[in-house]
Known about the structure:
- The protein is of the alpha+beta class.
- Among the domains are: about 20-130, no CATH class; about 435-505 and about 560-615 and about 625-650 and about 755-830 and about 870-880, FAD/NAD(P)-binding domain (3-Layer(bba) Sandwich), CATH 3.50.50; about 905-950 and about 965-1075, 3-Layer(aba) Sandwich (Glutaredoxin), CATH 3.40.30.120.
- The protein has a 7-stranded mixed sheet, with helices on both faces. A 6-stranded mixed sheet has the order 1-11-10-9-29-28, with no helix packed on it. Strands 8-3-2-12-21-20 form a 6-stranded mixed sheet.
- Strand 20 (about 755-760) and strand 21 form a beta hairpin.
- Helix 8 (about 190-215) runs antiparallel to helix 9.
- It is globular.
- The relative contact order is 0.08.
- This is FAD-binding domain-containing protein.
- It comes from Noctiluca scintillans.
- Its cofactor is FAD.
- GO terms for molecular function: FAD binding; oxidoreductase activity, acting on paired donors, with incorporation or reduction of molecular oxygen, NAD(P)H as one donor, and incorporation of one atom of oxygen.
Amino acid sequence: MSVEILVEKRDRTTWLLSFSGCACVTLGTSWFALAQLVSGSVQTNIGGGLLSLGTGFFSVTLLMSGIRDESPEVDLQVAQIAALGVVLSAVLLMCCKGFKLLRRPLLQPRNYFFYGTYTYAVGSALYIVPIIYDLDAITASVHENMAPVGALCLSIGALLLMLFSSRSALNLDVTLSDVFPSTTRLHVGLLQAHCAVVASLAVVCGRAWTAIAGLLGAFDNSWTAVAFGDLVLVLGFACLAASLVEGRRGGSVFGPRSSVMDRSRGAGVALRAATLGSVALLSAASVCRFSARVFLAGAGQDDAGRYFDLVGISSCVCTASQLLAAACVVWRGYWVQPFMHPGNYFVLAMFLSATGDALVACAAFFGADNSGGTGADLEHFGGAVSLIGAILLLLHASMALETQTIGAYQGNCVERNDGYERTGVEPWDTDELPWKEVEVLICGGGPVGLTLASDLGLLGIKVLVVEQRTEVISDARFFILNSSSMEYLEHLEVAEDITREGVAQDIPFGAVWTDGLSHPCARILAAACVPGRSHCQEKLATLDPITISRLCGSTHTNAVPQRIMQSKQEKVMKASAESRASVEVLYGYSLLRFREVQGDGSNSGFVEAVVEQVRDGTGETNAQYQDYRVRAQYLVGCDGPGGRVARDLEFRYDGFANLTKTTSFLIKSKEISQHVLKNVGASNQYQVTRPGVGGAIVTHVEPDEGLWNFIGSWVHHPKRWASNPRGVIREFMGPMNYEVLTEKSWYWNFFIARNFRRNRILVCGDAAHSWPPVCGLGGNTGYGDASNLSWKLAAVVRGWGGDVLLDSYSVERRNQCLRTAQCVMVCMPRPRMLLLLCRIWANFRRIPGVMKILQWKWVSGNSGVRGGQHHCTEGVQLGIRHDFSPVCVTEAVIPPDDPFCKYTQRVVSGGRLPLVMLSSGSPIFSILSKSSYTLLAAISEAEVEALTSACGDSQGGQQQQARHPAIGESARCLVAAFGSISAPLKVVGLHQGEHALVSTNLPGTRVEAYNLVQNEGLILVRPDRIVAWHLPWKSAHVAITSTEASYIALTVAGRGASDEAAKVQSAQNSLGWLTSRFLYSLRPFGFAFPQAVALENQTKDDAVAQLRLKKGANGFEATTKGSAVSDPEFNPVVPESALSVEIVSGSVTAQTSSG
């Protein structure tokens, strides 16, 4: 093959690769810009659009020059300069946003947007310079030297942007929170994690340089450039070896997983040494290959073969060392399922790099003349495979650095309840007040407080509920109950009442994008709806993911979400609570003051409180009621985000206050309802966009009554909205008549309490956590609090539950809330970006293709089948496991929590029991005890009777032993262990009878659930459907001993198991880890919402003081919902003279001078 033909082939290949690369960059940046349209920033959107335009223009000029079959003429060169100028300006615009978000540590993955855009800018500049250098004849030497560097910079920049974008797409935030072994234990220490990131960056640069230099210079035999890539690889592998050196370990949260991951403890040191040695060998082999390629560049034809052999041998050593490193990591137990899980990226990176080096070795052995043919093709392909492996290594190192960064801050986030040393005793002059003796006092009569009271009343606990309102609320507020909440309400036997009071069963779920409601020319722009609740109930187990996401439900439950206004929820739950014989509900009463009295030898302590009837404006008190003095064993604050209980005891919070202000209106118009149902179509939510006005969300909360909830957050003229909101509402609702029933202004707040318990005082619902109205997770999380707390309170009050049982409430619910907060942060709407979307629609909707793109984006955003799309919350509802709960028996191997949008059924301690059907036609949840643990056993009902009866037939026992010897003996030991601590235990046999599992004609997800439960011999289930312990059939060949059974009973009852202190400490460390992640993730909120006030282990009064200081004394507005910073129903800043704390036998007392 002649030199001229090789040069022509090289030029054609270079042109084809350049054009293909520019086309791919065009498509990629277009996709990136669309993906960032709602959740990104203005700079990102404009920059991404310009970047797409510039690269597209440049690719067209390349195509034209290739068609002309000659060097680019002056007009094409000018066009290329203009195109690359647009690219450079776009990237610099995005760099401004990246610099604004830059924060420490500098190498963390959240800064990849900054590094990616700046590297992309450098690459663009390196492409522009040689073109500008000489328009008539580009200097060959300049172009040849700068073009590969520019290509490398563009590749690295695109890679970093891809890694930045993949965080939400791959749910890496959830991955990191689960502390996977390969991201935490290979690089133990912050310094080692930094070394790993530097090493992986060097490896990526070396692999990319080698691949590019090989493609561009292989035909000229320019091995010097390729050798330079090997030199960078040497430095990278040396840093990688340094990152594997044992260092100071991170937080002790790694302990529980670390204790079960090392499969060969005795060989642990040897395996670590082998891993380190294999990477060191890899570095040495890379040095040999670098030297061989340097000599190859100046070698003659006779010596070239020898140096090619040396390259091949060095590549073989690299292959073997990388495979050895991967094998050592797998043998040490650092491998998780599924195969492509991010926790396996180190092993996969080593394997792919080894494959690439093997191909390079083959190329060296098979093709000594590396100027073309099979040898060159193998080397190029091997370089590409190795580059993919290097990318995975960089992603692994980035996750390790972020994990270690968060773990280093973990100790500051562990709640330490050291008590309060305060003085200032003021006696209570309330002896004349009548007493009320109850077991639980609940402050707050909202949905959560009433639900908790109803559940406790169902369990026979004497409860008093006080609520300062005189009647239930009248506005919409929270108006959807998800599948998890509906399951709980079925447990309370009120689901039918909720369904009857809620929205009609045939009204579709989902959303409609329209340009008007009652306007004569209103039309649907896009729709994302699914059939109504009655249709979905029939086929729930077989529904597709998009339908499930629009329902906000799950195929793994037996309950379909229900839309119902909060006012009607309160009405139903108030009636349910009042129907319980042991529950008393007092509306029009407020908690005036309270104190906790510590126990002594004669009593166990109690909470004493004064509840006062709310005075009217004249200061007169209704004679029908009177004030009371209440004594209770426990006090639960369900009094909302501005609650007195949490504020007076100075509960501390993390998060942000005052993110943004929103005003919602409850509107009534049957005329508009009928018009919309007839002409626009039925739906749950209407997203209305009006040209020149903006966008609004209008929810049809009660179609039969003509009730609408209007939120207008995205208007083009904020001053007009502030001065005349009802005039703006008319723009969206249309010309038909309507009536505004209520108007509520409130701030979006985002905070979670550091602890949900202080001795005998607990907080629940919005008093413990609050976040923006995204995903309907605010109120539903409150229902989850009540479900978790009710049976634990009843157990402790009845005496069979220990104090650790109440500690587990705080541990488990904070675990749930901190993970739910991650989902809410991903789905948080950015009002400015939504307003930008409205403007794009208003100004460019008539341009061909623009409307299609907007419709596609809207439908995708309302069909949440992956993380970051707020409709799909199945994983948040059902997939969070209480790994470190002190009342769950720890698993041998702890599986990770599920992503936000997906739930994987498992029988695992701390996880939800899979839903299976019984032969009676009922779900398995219907046979669970409402007040105690239930033992599900693979034995028959007759064997259960023989097991639990005091005078059971010994013959029956013999039959049980004959059929299921280990299962029967284990069940007997557990029954005896629970009986020894006077803890109730319900035993249910699943082998035969009406409680037998159904195995035929199972729809959808029920088949998988049946197989999972069928593989278990014993399952110990809590009343809230969480598995506390289980015994699989594969482990049931040997029965558990009485000692093991006693340990299980003491653990799940919170009664002082042998490792109780260690379990509580592990739980606190785990929550410290999650809290540090929560704070770490909240940092960007300060940029997206500059008016917000950050909270880190602060009280709400601290937040009020900061807000007043930030806004000024005259600029602070009180609103009616959101937190203590915005509730006018009380003054959030209490004068020092009105607050005193009393110590009664070592107890804490908070008093305020008024209700």
